[in-house]
Specification:
CATH class of the largest domain: Alpha Beta
Helix content: 25-40%
Largest sheet: 7 strands, mixed
Shape: elongated
Distance between the termini: 85 Å
Number of helices: 12
Structural class: alpha/beta
Oligomer: single chain
């Protein structure tokens, strides 16, 4: 039998596991809750926890951007929006932008990142991010970095998890905005066209639109015809409902084809992609032109990302953070935590980023909305019997 003194000597001399944690891509309500849960769970396992600032970018300046975390660092952050570690859409180590001879070029600095990871003595990395950040995490895993992923996006477009944290908060923000708009729309007998986020998936627009009593919901999955939208507007006025609320997902498309966008720009993971936006302004102008009704448009934008996370998102983020630490403990690297109600499960990161989750045509929410008289602009409005 080992005596107590020998036991404690062995414990004290045992190297402590060092685990890094970072947040990449756009911010989302609940990020701090994930960080808090993962760090506190790690402390409970006897680990040293290190925060990496500004996503993967932090590994290129470890002296300034990699910090050993203390309990005080994660105290009182459960309810806060944003991320205490900071985040960025840039800094893809496999396509890192540098200036050479006055020109912007992209270089693969992934070996440098892996070297700095090892130099820091880290045993594992918890990467919290969307599809772009998780794609980087997968590539680093293939280069030998022990990585665990946590899905983050308000768009809810990752197919491997039923829902992502931040989505519920974004929908709640948008729904509350629609509640406020009803009174001013009704007062002025006006059409209000509201643009929400979601990229190429209509989850936010659909859920907020139904919950907020919208009359028209335009989503990427259902191309719309402006004449059907206008017919629905006119129908409301004719039956005495002399105002209307239209919700547009930023990626909604006209049946004739083509996205409304601002410009091309670098986005998460170094990809070139169009910056979506402008659909609400375009739809409002078309409605005014076709119907002669007074129209206004507004873009909720980053209001959907900010502020305190909802109770649902705090709980889900906490469960994700704890589950990520457990995956590290169990050595299940290359995996991502996911919600499979009622449980949290793990899936491979490669599987998680393989396919975008879009609103299915068979969605019962769409069926319910249509039976309630909500138009998606894909067909003439149904007749009202009153």
């Amino acid at each position: 039998m080992v005596d107590a003194a020998t036991h404690y000597t062995r414990v004290l001399n045992k190297p402590r596991k060092r685990v890094g944690i970072l947040t990449g891509g756009g911010d989302a309500p609940g990020l701090n809750a994930v960080i808090r849960a993962a760090v506190k769970t790690g402390f409970g396992f006897g680990w040293e926890m290190y925060g990496v600032r500004e996503g993967f970018e932090g590994f290129f300046d470890p002296e300034k951007k990699v910090k050993k975390l203390k309990d005080d660092d994660v105290a009182g952050i459960l309810h806060l929006g944003g991320t205490i570690l900071g985040t960025t859409n840039r800094g893809n180590p496999f396509e890192y932008e540098v200036i050479e001879d006055g020109k912007k070029v992209r270089k693969d600095r992934s070996d440098e990142l892996v070297g700095n990871f090892k130099e820091l003595g880290l045993d594992a990395l918890i990467a919290i991010g969307g599809d772009g950040s998780l794609a980087i995490a997968q590539q680093l895993f293939e280069k030998g970095v022990p990585v665990v992923g946590v899905p983050k996006t308000i768009d809810n477009d990752l197919s491997a998890t039923v829902v992502t944290f931040g989505f519920d908060t974004a929908v709640s923000r948008a729904t509350e905005a629609l509640d406020w708009l009803h009174s001013t729309a009704k007062s002025h007998e006006r059409v209000m066209v509201v643009e929400v986020m979601g990229r190429y998936a209509g989850w936010i627009a659909l859920n907020a639109g139904v919950s907020g009593g919208a009359d028209v919901i335009l989503i990427p999955e259902i191309p719309f015809r402006i004449e059907h939208v206008c017919e629905k507007i006119q129908q409301r006025y004719e039956i005495g409902r002399r105002f209307a609320i239209v919700v547009c997902a930023e990626g909604a498309t006209f049946a004739e084809g083509g996205l409304i966008h601002k410009e091309r720009a670098e986005v998460e993971a170094g990809r070139q992609e169009v910056l979506l936006g402008g659909i609400a302004e375009r739809v409002a102008a078309e409605i005014a032109n076709h119907t002669g009704r007074s129209c206004r448009h507004l873009v909720l934008g980053h209001l959907q990302r900010g502020g305190h996370p909802t109770t649902f998102d705090r709980l889900l983020a906490t469960r994700f953070g704890h589950a990520a630490a457990v995956l590290v403990r169990d050595g299940k690297f290359g995996n991502m935590v996911a919600l499979d109600p009622p449980d949290i499960k793990s899936v491979t990161i490669k599987e998680a980023i393989g396919e975008m989750k879009r609103v299915p045509a068979t969605s019962d929410v769409i069926a319910s909305a249509k039976d309630l008289g909500i138009s998606f602009g894909d067909e003439p409005p149904r007749t009202y019997y009153i």
